[in-house]
Amino acid sequence: xxxxxxxxxxxxxxxxxxxxxxxxxxxxxxxxxxxxxxxxxxxxxxxxxxxxxxxxxxxxxxxxxxxxxxxxxxxxxxxxxxxxxxxxxxxxxxxxxxxxxxxxxxxxxxxxxxxxxxxxxxxxxxxxxxxxxxxxxxxxxxxxxxxxxxxxxxxxxxxxxxxxxxxxxxxxxxxxxxxxxxxxxxxxxxxxxxxxx
Length: 197
Fold this sequence. Notes:
The protein has nine helices and no strands.
């Protein structure tokens, strides 16, 4: 028998996931302050008591979405560290691959991306954590010989996050360019510059 307030045939995990999905869309479209629990449950075809089975309040569901975005971004940043002994010909391909995976995730989750990069009051904290992880990766990669010893890894890490954030807004979420195009453009810019040799 279906729990009261839950669509027939739905289980608790499905209802919770649906609430998260709908809430992400509501927050992305309307902002934090204009989003109401009543609008979330209405769009999810659930009752307000069902909402409170899974989340204490609006703040709790928003914080969970913020945490989900932060954890996923840190995971992508950690996975992007280049392994020792990569062949030089595959170095660029490996960087593009990691960046493309990140951009594909952002494109597939536009509402969560809006929350994590732009709406959340913790967005700057998340970006700072990403910068720290990328700097740590770059320091490792400089030490194994992939990049110049005199490179300012802090500046590169901050620049990369700035580029990703801006291009996500202006190119990716607006669907002007595909993740692969953006990843290749970023890597070309950072590895080869803009000089005409």
